[in-house]
Write a structure and sequence with these properties.
Helix content is 51%, strand content 13%. By secondary structure, it is of the alpha+beta class. A hairpin with an 8-residue loop joins strand 2 and strand 3. The radius of gyration is 43 Å and the shape is elongated.
Length: 227
């Protein structure tokens, strides 16, 4: 029985094939390991970045103090872009002023800022009476009264009170500030006794209108011309 001798050429061809498969497996495994390492590094980086952003936001909140979360008057004063104010523009007023030395008149454009569109619609139904009330205010003014900024502010306050009066809304006017009385000269004994008795008598309380919320929030002047 003769022995079978393997063909060296065939053996030479088989060895490189097995080595090539092993090499391919090693490359694939290395690629997978690199991908996993890169993915893990990305996750760690994102976590660190999120933690850094949270720390920065907390630090900014501490520096801002209570103003960052204030919900009081300061927060309510900020304009709300989602709920803009309701404006009610009025036709311009051309009014003769109360100047006596020369004829002066004022041309004033007024826009009322009110609490809601519903109230603006209600005001339109009372507009003749509202315009009359505003006209009566302006005709009592002189050009000197309206030239300064304080005069314009006083006019705006009066319009806010009088424009709602035709609708049955009474707004109390601010009490005038009375100057301090000058010290009286020294009185005799009888006069001092009478003055003391008069001071001890109960004084009649002034009748005041209760505080009512005004639906008109601001009075804006779109034009203001005095000639």
């Amino acid at each position: 029985m003769s022995a079978v001798i393997a063909d060296p050429a065939a053996l030479g061809d088989a060895v490189p094939v097995k080595r090539g498969k092993k090499k391919l497996l090693v490359i694939v495994a290395a690629a997978l390991a690199f991908a996993l390492a890169a993915g893990g590094g990305t996750i760690v980086y994102l976590k660190k970045r999120a933690a850094h952003a949270a720390a920065a936001a907390a630090e900014a909140g501490e520096e801002g103090g209570p103003a960052a979360t204030d919900t009081g008057a300061g927060a309510s004063a900020r304009p709300d872009a989602m709920n803009p104010p309701t404006y009610l523009p009025l036709d311009p007023f051309v009014v003769n002023l109360a100047d006596r030395d020369v004829d002066r008149y004022a041309q004033i454009g007024i826009t009322l800022e009110v609490e809601s569109s519903v109230f603006a619609d209600q005001m339109r139904g009372y507009m003749p009476a509202i315009r009359n009330a505003i006209l009566m205010i302006i005709t009592r003014k002189t050009s000197k009264d309206l030239l300064g900024s304080s005069g314009k502010e006083e006019l705006a306050d009066e319009i806010m009170r009088e424009a709602v009066r035709p609708m049955g809304i009474e707004i109390a006017a601010p009490e005038p500030v009375t100057p301090a009385a000058a010290p009286a000269p020294e009185a005799s004994g009888a006069e001092a006794t009478a003055a003391s008795a008069a001071a001890s008598m109960p004084k009649k309380a002034k009748k005041r209108i209760g505080t009512t919320r005004n639906p008109i929030q601001h009075v804006h002047f779109s034009s203001f011309i005095i000639q």
